[in-house]
Every structure is written in C-alpha cells, then in structure tokens.
Write a structure and sequence with these properties.
18 helices; Serine Threonine Protein Phosphatase 5, Tetratricopeptide repeat; Rossmann fold
Length: about 475
Amino acid sequence: MADLRDQIRVLVRAVELAPFDAALLNALGDCYHMAKQYGLAVAAYTRAVKIVPKLVGTWYSMGCAQTSMGAFAAAVVSLRRALALDAGKPEFQHNLGRALFEIGQADEAMEWFWKAAQLSSSALPLTTMAVIAPGVPGCGNADLLKLRRLWAERCLPVVERPIAATLGGRLRIGYLSSFFHRPNWMKPVWGLINQHDRERFEVCLFSDAAMEGGYVPRAGDQVHDISKLSNEQAAEVIRGCKLDLLIDLNSFSAPERLPLLAMRPAGRIAAWFNLYATSGMPCFDYLIGDSTVIPASEDSYYCEKIVRVAGSYLTFDVSYSVPDVSDRAGACEIVFGCLASQHKINNDVVAAWSRILLGAPASRLIVKNATLGAADVREFLLGRFVAHGVDAGRVQIEGPAEHHEFLQTYGEIDVALDTFPYNGGTTTTEALWQGVPVVTFLGDRWASRTSASILRAAGLDEFVRGSVDEYVDYAISLAG
C-alpha cells in the first residue's frame, strides 16, 4: 500500500507538469482505482477521455470504478462508450449487464450477459444469469428451468460420493447458510429454527459467518463454523454429522457454495427460504413452498419434488427493537411507498406506479433503498417517472439508512406497492409488521407470488389482485 501511495504522489506531480497527457491521467486513475479511491479515479479517467475520447480501456476502467462506488447509471454510460469502441470484449459486456441490472434494467442486462457467456470461457456470465433469472421479466418458468439446468451441467463438478448414513432416533436436521450474520434478512429463518421441538429434532447449523442476533441457542444444538473451509472440507464436516436432512438456505445468493451440495453430504437435501425457482440441480430432493407460490400445475418446471406446507412457506419473527406503528389517520393525502431493492424496480414497475400516481392526483410516492444513495441513480429513476408524465415533485427518492431508521420510513407511508415480477419477501413482511398494507398481484412465477403467500396467510386477501391492471386500479381506489 505504501508503494501505491508513492506511485500516486509521483503521478500527481507528473500530471501537474503535463496536465494534457492522457496516458498519465489514465495511470493515475488506475492507481486511485487500486487504492479504492473511486471518486478520484473517476475524476482522473474523465480528464483523460476529454483529451483522447477513444481511450477504450479508460472508458472501461471508469465504468468499473463507477460500479464500485455505486454510481451504476453513470457506469452504464461509460461501459456503453467502451463497447462502442470495442464490442467484442466479454468483460465489457458482463460489467455493463451488471450495472444495468442494478438500476432495474434486468431484461437488457440478460442480453449482455448472454453475449458475454458466448464469448467467454469463464463461468461468471452464466452464473450471473442463473442468479438473477427469477427476477427478470422476460424469463418465465420454462426459461428458468432450462437456464439453471444449463448452469448446473456446465458449472458444477461431477462428484461421486456416498450418501451419509443416519443415526436413527431423533431426526437430525442441518441448516446451511452464508448469511446467519444478517439478522434482518434471517428473520424468516430464525422464526422457524427457534421453534423446533428439540425433543423430536437435533439441530445443526453450518455457518459461513459469525452468528449475529435472532438465533436462540438450545441445549444439544451444534454450530459449525465453515467460513474458512473449502467446499470439500465443509462437505466432510456435514457428512460427519450424519444428517437425516440438510436444508440449504443459500441457493443462488451464494453460488460459490452450491458445489458443496452437489457432493451430497447428507441423506436428503432440501431447499427452503431462498430458492424461489427450480435449482436445476439433481442433488436437491425437495423444494419447500406452498400452493400459492407453486400451484400443482407448475410442478413440471421444477426438478425437485415440491413439498407444500399449509399457509405461507415463510415464517417471520422479529427479535429486535423496531419503530412504533404510526397512525396516519386524518392525513390530507395518501402516500404510497416502496422500500424494495432498486434492481426490482424495472420499467414495468415504474409504468404501473406512474399510472397509479396519475390516477390518484392527490397522492405521492416514496421510494427508498441502498442503491439510491448515488445521485446518478436517483436522477435516472426520477427521469423514468417524468417520462410517464409524473410531476417530479410527487416522487420522493431516498438512499440508505440504518435499519431502525429505515423502518421508520413506514411511518410516512399509507400503502406499500409491491415490485414485480420479483416481489418483496422481507420487504413485504416488514411493511406489514410496521402496520402498512402491501398491494400486490398474482404473477406468472414463484418470485411474483411471494407477497401473495404472505398476505393471504395474514388474512389480507383483498390486497392480492389478479393482474397488473387490477393492481393499479385497486391502489387508485385506496387513494380515493
């Protein structure tokens, strides 16, 4: 790091002496980039391309730096410039796809990932597609099955290992997760694990991170830290526990751990909580859902045996302090809101929300998420509403906040609007917990029915509509 600081000092002085030397500016940008001083890197790259506009590598590096600092809309512009100068670089295509995805342009992102996959020997583009596919508007159930089977065939090792024997007696259940350190996200998981009857079940947890909040330890539970273990080593640890059932909580949120499951470290393997489409992997015996998210007519789109539980497949428990529920009775306007991740807010979602705002002229909308901390992303999102004829002053766009403060935003919201085809999960349950109903509709896949599952279990069936048009009309009626 000291050498890098020395290089930066030398290059800063060199640029002072030769301020119009694009190569020096690019080198300075690269050093800032390596030092993770992304804003300074972008400033140096910007000066370089103003001097020599056709510096393809500089445009690409600037796009990468902008991506690292969360300026995804700006990154899209830079990476498009790089591809205009050199269209055949798969890394350019992949990174453009990533930036597009983060600002809600998932369909176009998939097109660039496909191009990158066709040109690259790397598994990264195909893996990225397998990860994001459930939330891509143009990917239906048949596409999801085909894509994830293709990913499994190309990206998973072929491993022949004996299935672990069981001990008998109490059922031994293991849970595998890379996210036990995220109590906000793990609320559905702890809502289940903490309720296990330890007289009937032995519980083993396999964690890639330190346990933080939510989990209530019980006598006899086993917690195994596998964070420093390879997949092969972790599989041996799991195999040594002789489980009757291993439940994967990661799915494609941690694709680097999926080869572990391909090694068959337990007698039976099930997916729950985080796999809202087929895995495409032959190692999964079961996928746990419910009749709302997976109607029986869609079983053929899954390579796993579907196990449907009564009510919602998701549990939910809050074990930490949250804001009080606010009473907005008597407010002079209705406020719609959405606190979902920005990548879920695609063009169709913006179009539907714009129709709601135009149909309910006394209403306004709050949109808040971590990605909106970047000014360019806020500007991009607001511009999409304005393009539909919505007055910019009616859309309040906010960036990240600490979780308690984040939840306080629900105190300003009367009705939450769901995203589609990638519904809220934790977002929906948190809205309900804070006393805010969520309007959704039954979509064409599991990911677009998650909120319906939760709302129906909560007795809020009237907020589950049959189509996007009904979703829009119902929201407008609530504003009336």
